[in-house]
What we know:
3-stranded mixed sheet, single chain, 10 strands, Spore Coat Polysaccharide Biosynthesis Protein SpsA, Chain A
Amino acid sequence: MAINWREILFIVFCVDALIQLFYYLYFFRRVAFPKEEERQMSREHPVSVIICARDEAANLARFLPGTLLQDYRTSYEVVVVNDNSQDETRYLLEGMHKEFRHLNVVELKQEAMLIPGKKFPLSVGIKTARHEILLLTDADCVPATEHWIQKMQDAFTEGKEFALGYGAYQKKKSLLNALIRFDTFQTALQYFSYALAGLPYMGVGRNLAYRRDVFFRHKGFSSHNHIPSGDDDLFVNLAANKDNTTVVMDKEAFTLSEPKKTWGAWIRQKNRHFSTGKFYRPLHRFLLGLYALSTFLFWPLFVASMVLFDWRWALLVFVPRLVIQGIYWKKAMSRLDEADLWPWFPLLDAWMFFYYIIFAPSLWKRPKASWK
């Protein structure tokens, strides 16, 4: 008997659901139910925290003390690269340096020709750094606890060159804030899971650590200096591998950032971040693209199958996927301190259809040249 188009529609829905289940059962379970590894005796490394700032006087005054007052017994410095700021950043940092001698301020007074974005000031900060372990964050970030440095550097056991941390956003009572935090959770769920599966592909500059040696060994950002963004994810994509990369999901190792306050500002930020994805390795692009496509199609295919095929069969496919997703998200959200989002997970999952429509154009748009 020939298969009609309604049956084909339902088969496509089944295949889409199976693809989704593959990602949950193979990748995302590693964040939801991580294996507890026996830790060898830990050691403390000297650490250089690096922050790039342009016109960030207000944020530095508010957040920098959280980095300068870390509870860390071993030597650490905080390198702040002031990238051609026109506000009071210079005078603020000069005043802070008098009180905190481990604050090292680097003043940049000229723009780098042909190197757009944050990569030049970050490279200068790395070259200035005195220590081998580099811990990167942003001027609008604050460590979640005074043990941030301790927890992040503790990941550098034998052979590890990258430590991927979680850069959370502060919680506010608004729909935009919930969607920003959910997007951050979704991104972390993927890059943590892939790294735990031996396929690290990105990290976030709000909370990322790597060895100084690996930066110079790969000639810094030279292979993608022409791309305005990507100082974090493109470098990880280039140099990280299954053997030299670890993840840090300890809540004491999180950083907190101020979320965008308007929809327009958030959309512009996301467009800039999405613009680097096209430069990832082919396998990473395929896996990320397949997951995005299956997520985008899931709800339309479910509704179409309910209406045009048989609602009972459609529910038979829909419910197991929803249950598994709910279990895995509950565990992962709790681990990443986003548990308050979980009661809304079906709506947040449906939101992803509209999310991909909004941000799909960023895949072919040319990114903005400035990092501020």
